[in-house]
Amino acid sequence: MRVFIYFLSILTFSYVIDIQTIFIRIITRDKYTLQWLNNFPFLSQSIREFWGRRYNQIIGTILKESLFLPLNLYIPSRSIVGLITFIISGLLHVHIALVAFEDISSVLPTFACFLLNGIACCIDAHLPINLPPLLGWLMTHSVLFVTAPMCLGPFARDKDVFFGVNELLSYDDDQWISKLPMPKNCPK
């Protein structure tokens, strides 16, 4: 349950952060703009669309400009270059898990999450047919929902990162459910 709630919060919290982009454009009358963090990732109809155009566009742009495009000059296969980019992103996330949580047990699942998503993107790129929009959406979010706990596990297990902020969201011992007094005429 924690991983699911954390997954949903990651995909939705950025809309609050993106409000600053709107204010900057209004205040400066479109003279200055900020890049949006996300572009409605829930609407993704393919795994490549999710990672390439919708989710975490700032990091996506950094990885594209610093890894994907330079490697693409030397390696002709875009699929191999994309897989290498996912592997390096996975190693960066492993580093974060080790430094932030000192959790060696999360190294393999975190790396596997990015490797599997990279493989899914390669398969998606070479799929001979285009899936109908609803089926594409279901497949995309099924892959994400299966692989997300691999990477988000350390974050969800550490209450101080997300769940420690508000005790009502803590699911330990069902404390988030309000305790009602037992009625006096309750049968045993």
TrEMBL record:
A Pfam family matched in the record: MBOAT_2
Record carries keyword Membrane: yes
Main location: membrane
Topological category with respect to the lipid bilayer: Multi-pass membrane protein
Residues of the Wax synthase domain: 41-114
Record-level GO BP terms: lipid metabolic process
Keywords: Membrane, Transferase, Transmembrane, Transmembrane helix
Superkingdom field: Eukaryota
GO annotation, cellular component aspect: membrane
Transmembrane segments: 6-27, 80-101, 107-127, 134-156
Annotated compartments: Membrane
Pathway: Secondary metabolite biosynthesis
Single GO term (MF): O-acyltransferase activity
Family: Belongs to the wax synthase family.
Record-given protein name: Wax synthase domain-containing protein
Organism taxonomic ancestry: Eukaryota, Metazoa, Spiralia, Gnathifera, Rotifera
